[in-house]
Amino acid sequence: MPGWDGAVAIVIALALLLDFLLGEPRRAHPLVGFGRAAEVLERRFNSGNRRVLKGTACWLLLIVPVVLLVLYLDGRSARWGWPGYVDDVVLLYLAIGWRSMGQHVAPIEAALARPDTIDLPQARAALAMIVSRDTAAMDAPALLGATVETTLENSADALFASLFWYVVAGPAGVVAHRLANTLDAMWGYRSPRYHAFGRCAARMDDALNLLPAQLLALTFALVSPYPAKTWHCIFTQGWRWKSFNAGAVMASGAAALGVVLGGPACYRGQSVVRPPLGWGRAVAPGDLARVRRLVRRSLGAWLLVLAMPTLILIAAAMVAV
């Protein structure tokens, strides 16, 4: 039940604090049960004809009832006043996965931190857990580039998109986005198995991520030490990338860091050469920490904007006194 009375910024700050202190729940995370239900439906209906229609129906069956339930519960909790925001904090915390992303990146960073102690097998195995591309033949520069790319992209998916949808549509918006993003991660592939069945999942995830991804790309530009070059890279590179959302975020993030991403990659045994994103030098081990600082600066900018109405009211009250 968001509003512009300062509660939004407080709820977001508390949810972020829980994520920082606790990370994702190791047991009984609601998305585990949701994922199992999605697997059952996919095995049952992803066959034969009309797979696009079947995939769309399964998407609706999995997401719409949950969103309606959250809407109903949110309406009831709104009557409680401030105690009702506890539900918002918990739900938003469950939707955020930023600390979890950092925990996945940490082994890669440790394996590639020093040139004399590089552990390519460890880095490849850790990266394979968070990307869809083939990592078995990657060298250190390719591993670093892929890690920066996925960190930037996941900052949009696992953090800023949830915050955006909480501000815009409350808990129901957060749930709709998180479940849609989960189904896209499970079904949204252009493989023979999922190309038709997962089309709705992929398109809906693109739609729900459109505004938060573009806002995040613009935020990277605003907090960048190279704003003009960052804007240029968004327009000339990111918006021409194969994924409009991911391209904008990665191009903006790379330009803000002064590094170049993109280039060769291998997906399911097929090599592709992707256009460059960003400008400057190749990615170095220290850039993984710089990505996190860039995300923190952008997060601070979002929180400042959300808290601004309350800060203005406080300042006006102090002047009046």
UniProtKB/TrEMBL annotation:
Q: In which pathway does it act?
A: Cofactor biosynthesis; adenosylcobalamin biosynthesis
Q: What is its main location?
A: membrane
Checking Pfam families in the record gives: CobD_Cbib
Indicate yes or no for the key word Transferase: no
A Gene Ontology term for the protein's cellular component: plasma membrane
TM segments? 6-22, 52-73, 158-180, 207-226, 246-267, 299-320
KW Transmembrane helix (keyword) present: yes
Keyword list, A-Z = Cell membrane, Cobalamin biosynthesis, Membrane, Transmembrane, Transmembrane helix
Name the InterPro entries on file: Cobalamin_biosynth_CobD/CbiB
Q: What family does the database annotate?
A: Belongs to the CobD/CbiB family.
**Protein task:** Converts cobyric acid to cobinamide by the addition of aminopropanol on the F carboxylic group.
Q: What is this protein called?
A: Cobalamin biosynthesis protein CobD
